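hiii, so i know i said id send this last week but things got crazy w the move. better late than never?? heres the sequnce for the chain we talked about at the cafe, plus the structure i predicted for it. fair warning i was half asleep when i ran it
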Amino acid sequence: MDRKLLLIILDGVPYANWRRYFGNLEGWVATGAARVWKMRSVLPSISASCYASIHTGVTPQVHHVTSNETIFRVAEPDIFSEVAGAGGRTGAVAHSFWSAFFQRHPFDPVRDIEYDEDDGPIHHGRFHTMTGYGHMNQMTPCDADLFATLTMLAERKGIDYGMLHTCTLDSMGHRFGHDCIEMDKACCMMDAQLAPFIPRWRAAGYEVIVTADHGQSTRGHHGGAGDDQRDVALYYFGDGQGPAPDALLDQLSLAPTILARLGVPVPGSMTAVPFLE
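okay and structure toks below
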C-alpha cells in the first residue's frame, strides 16, 4: 500500500448540521489541518443503498440495493475486495449490513459479530445489529467505544484500510428531526467523542476521511431527492490535492478516490473520477 486510510461514516447527518455543530472538525478546517467539501449522495438516499454505493462506486440501479430490505452479498468489486486483492489488510467496525454486503450473507450474529479471517475481503470485522431498533429504542452502541475499537484494529492488527460506520445520529434524527435541541446536542457530543481519535490516527500514519452516507430532513426523513436528504460534508485529513472548496463531490467518486490514495488499481466498474490526487 502507498498509504493507509480510515473512512469514518456518521450515518444521516445533513450538510448544515455538519458545518454548524461539529466544532472540532471545523476547527481543524480553520487551521488548515483538514479540508471540507460538500458531497451529494446517490438516489435513493436510503442507508443501505448508500452503503453499497460508497464502497462499490456504482449506483443502486447497478448494484440493486434499492432499500434497507434488499440485503445480499453485493457482486460488484468494492474497496475491501480490491485492497485485499492487492495484498492489503482491511478492518470494519460497523452495522451488520456492511458484513452482509461485502463479506457474506446472511449475517449470523454468533459467527459474524466479531471475526478475524485471513482470506478477507474484510480481514478484521467488528459488527453490531441494532436488533429491536425503533422510535422508542435507539439500539445503537456508544460511539466512543466504536472509535476505540477501530483504533484497536489499527494498532493491533495493522490494517491498511479501515471503515467505521455508526447510526447514532441517523437514529436520533428519525426520532426527533434535525431542527431541535436534542440533535444540536447529539451532533456536539459526536464531534467531542470523535475528536481525540483523529490526532491518534494521524500520528499512526493514517489519512482520515469523515463523512455521512446521506443527509436528513428537518422532519427526520431521507430517501428522496431533496438536497437536505442527499447533501453531506466530507472532511479530509491528509496531503492529497483536492478540488476547489466550493466543488460538489459525487458520492460515486469516494471508492475510486480511496483506492487511488492507497495505491490500489481502480476496477473498471468504478467510472467516477477520484477527487484527490
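btw The chain has one domain: 4-262. thought thatd interest u
miss u guys!!
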